[in-house]
Design a protein that fits this description.
This protein is mainly alpha-helical. Helix content is 55%, strand content 4%. It has one domain (3-137): Four Helix Bundle (Hemerythrin (Met), subunit A) (Up-down Bundle). The chain has eight helices and two strands, in the order H-H-H-H-E-E-H-H-H-H. It has a two-stranded antiparallel sheet with strand order 1-2. Strand 1 and strand 2 (105-108) form a beta hairpin. Helix 1 (3-18) runs antiparallel to helix 4 (76-92), helix 1 (3-18) runs parallel beside helix 5 and helix 2 runs antiparallel to helix 5. The longest helix is centred in the middle third of the chain and has 23 residues, at 109-131. The two termini are 31 Å apart.
């Protein structure tokens, strides 16, 4: 699957629940135990705000603290939509083979786009869990991400990006397998 399509589908999936957030929801717990709903959404918007800068070839040092702090302001849905739209446009015009300067080294734009798609998809599910909003992944998207990240299982477990992988049966649905790989228990609430 084209990484650009993969990213767009991840944003679409996350947006379904993000559009339902009310001000009263912001303090709710999430599967990311260190973040309540507001902090998790702020993280997602922050990550998306970086996408245009990094795809234009800027380094982390050049971007600096431009996106630090509260990026939700008083309108979380508008902040999400603005960041998502900016990332979608940047990704649409990106050369997949271009070099992106990430905090942990230079990678291809394709690598980065897939990585950020996974972040959006999984954290979109986390937000859905917090809101008791059902999130059903596109099976093709989940399969691609599972296949990409399964060989990186040990890295995921050690770098703290996601939770420790959870064991599930080989016959589990692909969404459950991807969530488990990212340290999520698909059958539990935050």
């Amino acid at each position: 699957m084209d990484p650009k399509v993969l990213f767009a589908k991840a944003v679409e999936s996350a947006s379904l629940c993000i559009r339902r957030i009310t001000p009263d929801d912001m303090g709710k717990p999430t599967p990311c135990s260190e973040w309540d709903l507001r902090a998790l959404l702020n993280h997602l918007v922050y990550e998306l705000l970086w996408v245009p800068d990094l795809l234009m070839g800027k380094t982390v040092a050049e971007v600096g603290t431009k996106h630090d702090g509260d990026v939700l302001y008083s309108d979380p849905q508008s902040a999400w939509q603005h960041a998502a739209d900016g990332a979608l446009v940047a990704i649409k015009h990106a050369d997949p083979s271009a070099v992106v300067h990430l905090s942990y080294g230079d990678k291809s734009a394709e690598y980065y786009i897939v990585e950020i798609a996974n972040d959006v998809l999984i954290h979109g599910w986390d937000i859905g869990r917090s809101l008791h909003c059902s999130v059903v992944f596109d099976e093709a998207v989940a399969k691609v991400l599972y296949d990409v990240f399964l060989p990186r299982r040990e890295e995921l477990a050690s770098n703290g990006s996601f939770g420790t992988p959870v064991e599930v049966g080989s016959d589990a649905p692909i969404q459950v397998k991807l969530l488990a790989l990212m340290g999520r228990h698909a059958d539990t609430e935050p």
